Amino acid sequence: MDEFNRDAEIGRLLDLLPASSRMKLRVIPQPQQTEVLTAPFPWPWRTEWPVSINFQLWQNLSEPQRDLLFLRTDRWLRGITWFRPGWFQGLVLAGGVAVALQGVQGDGVGVLVGAALAGVALRQLLRSYRSPAYELQADEHALTIAQRRGYTEVAAARALLEAIERQAQLERRGLTFTELVRSQNLRALAGLSSVTVPSSYRVPER
User: Fold this and answer.
1) How far lies 6's CA from each of 11, 75, 138, 159, in Å?
2) Once rounded to an integer, what is the mean pLDDT over residues 62-69?
């Protein structure tokens, strides 16, 4: 894909996004990477979301596949929310407050206890954010956005399903366990399978 077409594609992709995402997400051409598309984990201190794309590989996807893969990446980035009410978020905050207070008071044991509490809670929070539940949530939110861009739910689900499979082929690898779970969920949403993903793979309702 030449420079002109690449720039046009970047503009087209950004136009797909909700306005709030366009302000944070930045597309970075990375011809040397072996992955089609990558995005670093959205830590809370990041002010923008860099999404790296190998456009030589990217052009081998159909336009619907590219649309859904890009929208899905945006929805995954937005789905990792650090500052919302939650059990683990509360423990991280409590541990941080304890460290600060005990540090002021010069209580070394209190600082260690607070830091341990915050550390354990943070590890559990990260584990939950990297679970298939948040991957499924990102897929389904991407389908919702795609419907506002003219896709039907079935067409969007099939495009994303095909994109997952095609991405793995282009990267010369097999599907991961999480991608297999996502694919099964998309098959059900696309009407290609009657087998649904168990509720244990879902993000708990708050």
Assistant:
1) 9, 22, 26, 21
2) 97
Q: What one-character DSSP code corresponds to residue 143?
A: H
Closest by Cα among 40, 48, 128 to 84: 128
pTM above 0.85, yes or no: no
CA angle 170, 175, 179 (to 5 degrees): 115
Contact 71, 145 (CB under 8 A): yes
Report the pLDDT value the prediction gives residue 125, as an integer from 0 to 100. Answer: 55
What residue type is assigned to position 42 of the chain?
Answer: P
Average pLDDT along the chain: 81
Total residue length of the chain: 206
- Rounded-to-integer distance, Cα 178 and Cα 128, Å: 13
The whole-angstrom separation of Cα 93 and Cα 33 is 37
For residue 50, give the H/E element and its range: strand 49-53
| Phi and psi torsions of 37, nearest 5° | -145, 135
Segment 112-162, tens digit of pLDDT: 544 554 555 556 555 665 678 889 999 999 999 999 999 999 999 999 999
